[in-house]
Design goal:
Number of domains: 1
Order of helices and strands: HEEEEEEEEEEEE
Helix content: 10-25%
Number of helices: 1
CATH architecture: Beta Barrel
Number of strands: 12
Amino acid sequence: MSRSGAPSIRVALAAVLAAAVVAAPAASASAPAAPAASASAPAAGGVGSAYRGKSSQGIAVTLSAPSGSERTFRYRASMKCTDGTTWLDDYFTDRVIVRGERFSSHHSSERGAIVTTVTGTLAGKQAHGTIRILERFSATPTAAGVTPLSGTGTIRCQSPTVRWHAVAR
């Protein structure tokens, strides 16, 4: 298998994630639209605010201000693969609903080739939680040399359980 780092995985991932944006809008790799400001938006510093912070891997995370009953959580994580490679995945953006100051989201796409799980707790100006990502790739490259995502793939790229922390802005 000819692959250094994961450039062929990134090409396959970009194509698959572009398709996932259309097929599964709840989890996509595109950046969330900036929330519109409104006169009724709560003052910064509470559970009605947007949150920004970092993961334990030092990677930026954001939780948008509420839009109706939903927020968007944007995150990514570095993963280690069973073929010995490591790489930093592109950003994912999940729509989440905060209930009782908590949220969780579990998405599976591409027939299980990508599985993401995030959790979060909001407590006034602070928010924290966990991120976990698993991606599976075929060990057999395509004619173009791309190692495609595959729900039954034998190459597994997985993040550890990554903790994140953010503050209201």
